[in-house]
Each structure stands twice: as C-alpha cells, then as structure tokens.
Amino acid sequence: MAEERKVSEHYAAIAKAWIDSRDEFEHLKDASIIYLESDHRKKSKRKKVFGLCEKVQDKNKWAIPADFTITFYRPHMEKLSEWQQEIVVYHELLHVGFYGEDEPMQTIPHDMEDFRQVIDMFGSHWDEDGADLLNTALLIEISEDASYLEESENSKGGEE
Ligand SMILES: [Zn+2]
C-alpha cells in the first residue's frame, strides 16, 4: 500500500507552541516547516519511527513550498500519550537546522540514540508505555497552548 501523507494542523499547533515558548527554538521562528501525518508504519533498524524531519531539496520546492517537512507516523504516534506526542514534536524540531534564510540549511543528526536534551528534559524512558515523565508542567503548558492555537486556526472563516 502506498504511503499517504497529509498536512496536519494538530502537529503544526504543537510545534508552534514549542517554538513560541522555548529559547532553544528561537532560531526557528522564521523557519518554514510543513507538518505532515503519514499512515505508514515506518521502522528503522527494527525500531518504530515516530517522526521524520527532512530538508526539502531545492529542486522540489516548487511542489513543497517549505524549507523542511516533519512527518509523524500515525500508527505509532496514536499509541503514545498526548505528552509523549509533544516530546516527539520537540525531538523532531531539534533536527531542524535552520539559522536564517541565507544560511546553509541541513537536518541535524542525533548526538546519542536520542538527543541528550530530550533525555535530560523528559527522562531516558519517555517513549515507553506508562513512562514516568519529567517536566510534566511544561508538557501541560504546551498542550494548552496547542489546543488554543488549533481552535483559533479552526475558527478562521468558519461557521460556529
Ligand atoms: Zn530523531
């Protein structure tokens, strides 16, 4: 079955909440990123892949008008809690190597199996079932910001 990807306002809202609220994402405020959801059960080295950050190649920009795409794999993501999903979004944003329109762009590789920053913030077993997450207050704040952003996006030009 061919993989299907569609644009996701849900993940865009979570990403915007992270970018707006955290200094480590200050450089991403002007980055152009398209957030996608895929129905594919992606694996890499037999591990589930939750998200994938890709730089859009210059030759493809006529079709994908962005510098980066971040794809989230629904069959794996839907098994995670809302907070764990937020951490996946945080993780994927750390892959975005954007430092301004005129600077070279690239995806940033992990510094360990995960990013040290993700492990330090949320605990090393954050992706396991029933994981005890660190920094839950921050995750609650991001959920609230994201649902606010998503609601205001949905109410643009619609009927109530
Ligand atoms: Zn990664």
Description of the structure:
With 160 residues, this protein is of the alpha+beta class. The protein has one domain. The protein has 5 helices and 8 strands. Strands 1-2-6-5 form a 4-stranded mixed beta sheet. A two-stranded antiparallel sheet has the order 3-4. α1 packs across α5 and α3 crosses α5. The longest helix has 19 residues. The N and C termini lie far apart (37 Å). The mean pLDDT is 92. The protein binds zinc ion (ZN). Zinc ion (ZN) binds next to loops.
Brief summary of the model shown:
With 160 residues, this protein is α+β, with helices and mostly antiparallel strands. 35% of the residues lie in helices and 18% in strands.
